[in-house]
């Protein structure tokens, strides 16, 4: 007998892909790739981050992040600045261009989310977001435990 969760991975992937594709079509005039959008989204959460941190957050190799940042810096979307805590490191920060574009980008994202959630009552939308956060937390905690066994022991 099939469980409701048998296709959970595919459903999550398909939903993410559909939202991403709609967002990209609505923002194509800005000329940013999916990887560039992901980096800007991370910088909206964490306005100054090292390249190593961004590589970890984006789950890509540090050399790939470096190239990505090079292109975005040339386009005026980000800048590198010295890390006041570590003179060997450089922080990546959004530029005024990014900050100015972000309000419009957020409006487009909100419209895409509203379109994606059409037909789902408002109270159920909150439940969905809470459930997805739980999945992320559960798997993030498990990943941290896999990397650092002493975390599990301290719980």
From TrEMBL:
<protein>
    <submittedName>
        <fullName>MarR family transcriptional regulator</fullName>
    </submittedName>
</protein>
<keyword id="KW-0805">Transcription regulation</keyword>
<dbReference type="GO" id="GO:0003700">
    <property type="term" value="F:DNA-binding transcription factor activity"/>
</dbReference>
<dbReference type="InterPro" id="IPR039422">
    <property type="entry name" value="MarR/SlyA-like"/>
</dbReference>
<dbReference type="InterPro" id="IPR036388">
    <property type="entry name" value="WH-like_DNA-bd_sf"/>
</dbReference>
<dbReference type="GO" id="GO:0006950">
    <property type="term" value="P:response to stress"/>
</dbReference>
<keyword id="KW-0804">Transcription</keyword>
<dbReference type="Pfam" id="PF12802">
    <property type="entry name" value="MarR_2"/>
</dbReference>
<feature type="domain" description="HTH marR-type">
    <location>
        <begin position="5"/>
        <end position="137"/>
    </location>
</feature>
<dbReference type="InterPro" id="IPR000835">
    <property type="entry name" value="HTH_MarR-typ"/>
</dbReference>
<dbReference type="GO" id="GO:0003677">
    <property type="term" value="F:DNA binding"/>
</dbReference>
<dbReference type="InterPro" id="IPR036390">
    <property type="entry name" value="WH_DNA-bd_sf"/>
</dbReference>
<keyword id="KW-0238">DNA-binding</keyword>
